[in-house]
Design brief:
single chain; mainly alpha; N-utilizing Substance Protein B Homolog, Chain A; about 0% strand
């Protein structure tokens, strides 16, 4: 597994835990064995993702709500919601990764951590977001 995939998975797990517990990021990192054993580069990238999502949560969630107009954001599965938040953050604020790579990574993570239909759902939401944004330009 590549460093960035590992980082995205760590970031998902931290965001999920944050959403459920509201714990401080530093406390979650300290108590998370996978975090402690991850390579420094993966932890650094993951921390940037988590911080970026949390700092821009209002805008990320606004885009998520716009893209999932038939779903209330609080009704999405927590894993799917946080995978989508991570991917949307990257698509909106980190232009160094191609859109196709961000979407593919999100799909693979959804296959590992989500429910049976999560990967298809994540793909549909993110693909629709990219298409909508490209049409607006």
């Amino acid at each position: 597994m590549g460093t960035r995939r590992r980082a995205r998975e760590l970031a998902l797990q931290l965001l999920y835990q944050f959403e459920l517990t509201g714990a401080q990021l530093e406390d979650m990192q300290r108590d998370f064995e996978e975090w402690q054993s991850a390579p420094p580069a993966a932890r650094e990238f993951a921390e940037g993702l988590v911080s970026g999502v949390l700092e821009n949560l209002e805008e990320v969630d606004s885009e998520l709500e716009r893209q999932t107009s038939h779903w209330r954001i609080d009704r999405l599965a927590a894993v799917d919601r946080n995978i989508l938040r991570l991917a949307l953050y990257e698509l909106l604020f980190q232009s160094d990764t191609p859109h196709a790579v961000v979407i593919d990574e999100a799909i693979e993570i959804a296959k590992r951590f989500g429910a049976e239909e999560s990967a298809r759902f994540v793909n549909g939401v993110l693909d629709g977001f990219v298409k909508r944004r490209s049409e607006a330009v």
